Amino acid sequence: MFAYVRLEVRRTLRDTGFVVVGVATPLLMYLLFTNLGTGGSAEDTMDYARYSMIGMAAYGAMGAALGVGPGIADDKARGWLRQLRVTPLSPLQVVMARALTAGVTVLPAIVSVFTAGALVNGVRLAAWQWAAAAVLMWLGTIPFTLLGLGNGYGLTAQTAGVVSMISMTGLSVIGGLWLPADVFPGWLAAISRWTPTARFGDLGWSVLDRHAPGPGTVAVLGLWLVVFAGYAVFSYRRSARTV
């Protein structure tokens, strides 16, 4: 199974679309958002650089996690999933391998944005904060990986790509990854608190404030994990009857 994981990781990292959407886009957006048209005091600028660093790292990591969907859908269309059935890999191992692949490929987005925050924008955090934020955000991609798996097994390659892009953009905006939810109208801010992306960002933002994620964040993320896991299982079972 781990040989299959290595194969999928290499395939993903060599894919131009992944590099653009999962790494380059969030990195460029972070640099643009924090270095063009900045105003206010130096303290306000640094606070926004820290906030946006977490938001853009979350945006890129979520995109990489959702990116597993179009890849699976494409493999399904090409007959690659059918070919895997003649290998010693069980269906469960194939699914786990794709999930592990996503667990590896989300790291470049987090690391690249964090590196830009430290080297370009001068963000300074304690060593434990860098480590805690990276680990928590890495773990926080699990619900989005499950959503990507569900899209991949349940949709066509073209549809999975469109749905993943819409989900990535829409959830990022509503979840406050691009702009703080504090600037939203009251009704939209209330919706934002229930999105998985807002709570995903909270994993990193709480570390900036030097405390653990709150129980509300853990509960909402746990709820979405269950929902997306159910969707992934349903999509896989339906796909298994036809592939």
Which percent range fits the helix content? over 70%
Which of globular, elongated, flat, extended, rod-shaped describes the shape? globular
Strand content: under 5%
Number of helices: 13
Derived structural class = mainly alpha
Number of strands: 0
Rg computed from alpha carbons, rounded to a whole number of angstroms: 18 Å
Total number of domains: 1
Mean of all residue-level pLDDT scores: 88
Elements, N to C (H/E) = HHHHHHHHHHHHH
Instruction: Please mark out the parts with pLDDT under 50 across 5 or more consecutive residues, or reply none.
Output: none
Largest sheet: none
Termini separation comes to 20 Å
Secondary-structure map:
Elements: H1 2-13, H2 16-35, H3 42-66, H4 68-78, H5 80-84, H6 91-105, H7 107-119, H8 127-139, H9 142-154, H10 157-174, H11 186-192, H12 196-208, H13 215-240
Structural commentary:
The protein has one domain. It contains 13 helices and no strands. The chain has helices spanning 2-13, 16-35, 42-66, 68-78, 80-84, 91-105, 107-119, 127-139, 142-154, 157-174, 186-192, 196-208, 215-240. The mean pLDDT is 88.
What brief labels describe this structure?
mainly alpha; 243 residues
In short:
The protein is mainly α and 243 residues long. It contains 13 helices and no strands.
